[in-house]
Design brief:
The complex is a heterodimer. Chain A is α/β, with parallel strands linked by helices. Helix content of chain A is 34%, strand content 23%. Chain A folds into two domains: 1-80 and 166-174 and 194-253, P-loop containing nucleotide triphosphate hydrolases (Rossmann fold); 88-163, no CATH class. Chain A has helices at residues 41-48, 71-78, 96-101, 110-114, 120-132, 148-161, 178-193, 205-211, 234-241, and strands at residues 2-10, 16-25, 30-34, 56-61, 64-65, 81-84, 166-170, 197-201, 214-219, 222-227. In chain A, the strands form two sheets. Chain A has a six-stranded mixed sheet with strand order 6-7-8-3-9-10, with helices on both faces. A four-stranded antiparallel sheet of chain A has the order 2-1-4-5, covered by helices on one side. In chain A, strand 4 and strand 5 form a beta hairpin. The radius of gyration of chain A is 18 Å and the shape is globular. In chain A, 44% of the residues are buried. Chain B folds into three domains: 2-101, no CATH class; 127-255, Sandwich (Immunoglobulin-like), CATH 2.60.40; 258-461, MetI-like fold (Orthogonal Bundle). Chain B has helices at residues 2-8, 10-20, 24-28, 32-52, 59-76, 84-101, 111-121, 258-291, 294-297, 301-319, 322-333, 337-361, 365-373, 378-412, 419-429, 433-461, and strands at residues 127-142, 152-155, 158-163, 172-178, 185-191, 197-199, 208-211, 218-223, 239-256. In chain B, strands 1, 5, 6, 7 and 9 form a five-stranded antiparallel sheet that branches. A four-stranded antiparallel sheet of chain B has the order 2-3-4-8, with no helix packed on it. Chain B starts with a helix and ends with a helix. The chains are: A alpha/beta, B alpha+beta.
């Protein structure tokens, strides 16, 4: 179980991205975080694996306080938390294989990894991960030679390499068209059904209805809603997205 | 009365204003930029013509002034005049004065001298026909001692003698050789005791060349060269000089000429000079570039101060042409490729440091975030997220710099920096235009090949 307790984040420039946010994520959930751009979704996800250090509050995962972990322990925690990004964040000039293998950096001998030497079983594992997302044949292409949807699948394969118990997905489909969006989210759904907890931020409400087991909504860094997707009625919608908002749908499935 | 009219009538008023101050009429009519522009343009042209002082060119500011009045009057009537006209007046004056300042004078061109230079350049001195040499010499005493030895020598069936057996400077001697190749051109020259050849042809500046007869014999009347004793410590002491007979004949094929060999050596020196300079520069530029990258150094005031200092130093260094730096290094370490190499290296440190730092500033933070999120340590983040992003552009920029350095190295040779440029300036000094032409071809060849190679390499990297 992941417990987020009274987390606040104030950036050095004074921006308050998160204000006293608390909620729990049970193991096996597909939790979707919604909210406008700038509402603090990305900051919240990055606080969980401490790519960003929260200013206040605690994040406790299976009884371990992530926010208090010293560097070595933090790296051990991070390697169990896969992360998928809106811009994929692949090393564009490196091969797909290298990008996927890099997901394993927390496990392998660091000195060998610095020399770029990978054990055969890790390479095999990488090929399997690529196979799971359907692009094993692209292993030796340069990452930037792939289409957007393929790049995001490489991103998922990289997260899979971490043998994660939790996947953080920061707007994983915001750069993709609606059809690709579903295919990427179905991979995440599949992983979720295999027991990996998924915390995912999303824009489109119909995707939220389709995939989320539970929803947390942020507005200006404050949690304004927590519940199931079905509980988001017109009034709630207006509250989360503002009075002028119109619901935009991704193409129906 | 007329004054009142001028004040009440916008056409007359603005026209009058522009008579006294060009552009003022336009300015008063609300066309402020136009007015100021006209005034500045007028003053610029007036100043230029006044500085040059040629009365003819005053026509230009006067025409602009007249146009300006016309424009002011038209503008009051609601219609501006095209500024192309005053622009044309101004440019005419500027180009006209420029023409005279540059002292363009086609009559100075000397076609004969041009041909004298260009004709040998059409035959670059790279290779020469392979040939064998047939040589013979005979000693002769200068000046005469009381009992001069016989000036006669035999060698491998060849015989040479001088009559009389000795002579003083300017005296006429008969020189003869037999047993040489028949019907072949034979060069005859003098060699003083320290081994310097002296020519025996007309005015002692051309080679004396005769053709041997069918029996391989040649005979000539020569004068003992006027400079034969110039280097002698005691001109009254009899010394043995030599008269040489030399024949050449082609043996088929070609070989590298002396100059051709020098050109190749110079080219090699230039390319390696540039290579070494680039390598040295790279070693220093990489650490400096990290200090000059704003995204790394902008964090706190101390590192930002370092960033500003390093950036400023690099900018200053980069603004000094490597040719100038070379002149300084020639003074410090002496003539030769080493000075040129150091100059190129110093300039390249600045140039590469800036290019590298821009690469570092432009790296995508996304992969860094992603690799950190996998639980990688700091070194692994650098190895897997930073290095893949910076190594290809670093390499590409380094190759590009090497390419530039080879071109600069040829020029740096001209100020004593060694390499092919040094050879070039030496050949120009001794008026060896065939050699100069060979150097030109070599430089063009190096630059074209390197340009191609570096472009291909960079294409693969980026």
């Amino acid at each position: 179980m992941l417990q987020i307790q009274n987390v606040s984040k104030t950036y050095p420039n004074g921006t308050q991205a998160l204000k006293n946010v608390s909620f729990d994520v049970k193991d096996g959930e597909f939790l979707v975080v919604i909210g406008l751009s700038g509402s603090g979704k990305s900051t919240l996800l990055r606080c969980i694996n401490r790519l960003i250090d929260p200013t206040e509050g605690k994040i406790i995962w299976d009884g371990v306080d992530i926010t208090a972990a010293p560097p070595a322990e933090l790296r051990n925690i991070r390697r169990k938390i896969g992360m998928v990004f809106q811009q994929f964040n692949l090393v564009k000039r490196s091969s797909v294989m290298t990008n996927v293998l890099s997901g394993r950096l927390g496990y392998v001998n660091p000195w060998m990894s610095l020399l770029g030497i990978w054990p055969a079983e890790e390479k095999q594992r990488a090929l399997e991960a690529l196979g799971r997302v359907g692009i094993a044949d692209k292993a030796h292409n340069r990452a930037d030679a792939l289409s957007g949807g393929q790049q995001q699948r490489v991103g998922i394969a990289r997260a899979l390499m971490q043998d994660p118990k939790l996947i953080l997905a920061d707007e994983p489909v915001a750069s993709l068209d609606p059809v690709l969006s579903h295919s990427i989210l179905q991979y995440l759904e599949q992983l979720n059904k295999e027991g990996i907890t998924v915390i995912c931020s999303l824009h489109f409400l119909d995707l939220v209805h389709r995939y989320a087991t539970r929803v947390v909504a942020l507005k200006d860094g404050v949690k304004v809603f927590e519940g199931t997707a079905q509980e988001i009625d017109r009034a709630k919608f207006k509250e989360i997205y503002g009075e002028e908002a119109q619901e935009v749908r991704a193409a129906s499935l | 009365m007329p004054r009142e009219t001028a004040n009440s009538h916008p056409v007359a008023r603005s026209g009058l204003a522009s008579v006294f101050v060009p552009g003022l009429g336009q300015f008063l009519l609300g066309e402020r930029y136009r007015g100021v522009g006209i005034l500045l343009g007028f003053l610029l042209i007036l100043g230029t013509t006044a500085w040059y002082g040629e009365p003819f060119w005053y026509a230009s500011p006067i025409l602009i002034w007249v146009w300006n009045i016309w424009d002011a009057v038209s503008l009051a009537g609601g219609r501006a005049r095209s500024i192309l006209l005053p622009l044309a007046f101004g440019l005419a004056a500027a180009y006209g004065i420029g023409w005279q300042v540059v002292e363009i004078d086609f009559s100075k061109a000397n076609v004969d001298r041009a041909i004298a230079i260009l004709r040998p350049m059409a035959r670059p001195d790279f290779v020469q026909p392979r040939r064998e040499v047939n040589q013979m010499w005979v000693p002769v005493q200068v000046p005469c001692s009381s009992e001069p030895p016989l000036a006669r020598r035999e060698d491998e069936g060849k015989t040479a003698f001088v009559m009389p057996d000795c002579g003083g400077v300017g005296e006429t001697l008969i020189v003869s050789a037999s047993g040489l190749w028949p019907n072949a051109e034979t060069n005859i020259y003098w060699q003083n005791p320290i081994g310097n050849p002296l020519m025996l042809g007309e005015g002692e500046i051309t080679m004396l060349t005769l053709t041997s007869d069918e029996n391989g014999a040649v005979t000539a009347a020569i004068r003992v060269p006027s400079t034969a004793l110039v280097a002698a410590p005691d001109p009254t002491l009899p010394q043995f000089h030599r008269v040489y007979f030399e024949q050449y004949r082609p043996t088929g094929g070609y070989e590298l000429s002396f100059i051709g060999n020098e050109v190749l050596k110079g080219a090699l020196a230039t390319v390696s000079m540039a290579l070494l300079a680039t390598g040295l520069a790279m070693v220093f530029a990489i650490p400096l570039s990290f200090l000059a990258a704003r995204n790394l150094m902008g964090g706190n005031p101390v590192t930002y101060a370092i960033y500003v200092v390093v950036r400023t130093l690099l900018n200053i260094l980069r603004s000094i042409e490597s040719l100038i730096i070379a002149i300084i290094f020639v003074v410090i370490v002496g003539l030769g490729p080493f000075a040129g190499m150091l100059a190129l290296a110093l300039h390249s440190v600045a140039a590469l440091g800036k290019l590298y730092s821009e690469v570092i500033e432009g790296i995508d933070p996304g992969p860094i975030e992603a690799i950190r999120a996998t639980g990688a340590n700091w070194l692994q983040v650098v190895r897997y997220a930073v290095i893949p992003q910076i190594v290809p552009p670093f390499t590409a920029f380094t190759i590009y710099r090497w390419d530039i350095n080879v071109r600069s190295a040829t020029v740096i040779g001209l100020v004593g920096g060694g390499g092919i440029g040094f050879l070039l300036i030496e050949l120009i000094r001794v008026n060896n235009m065939r050699g100069v032409s060979a150097v030109f071809i070599a430089i063009a060849f190096i630059v074209i090949v390197l340009d191609y190679v570096s472009a291909k390499l960079r294409e693969r990297l980026v």
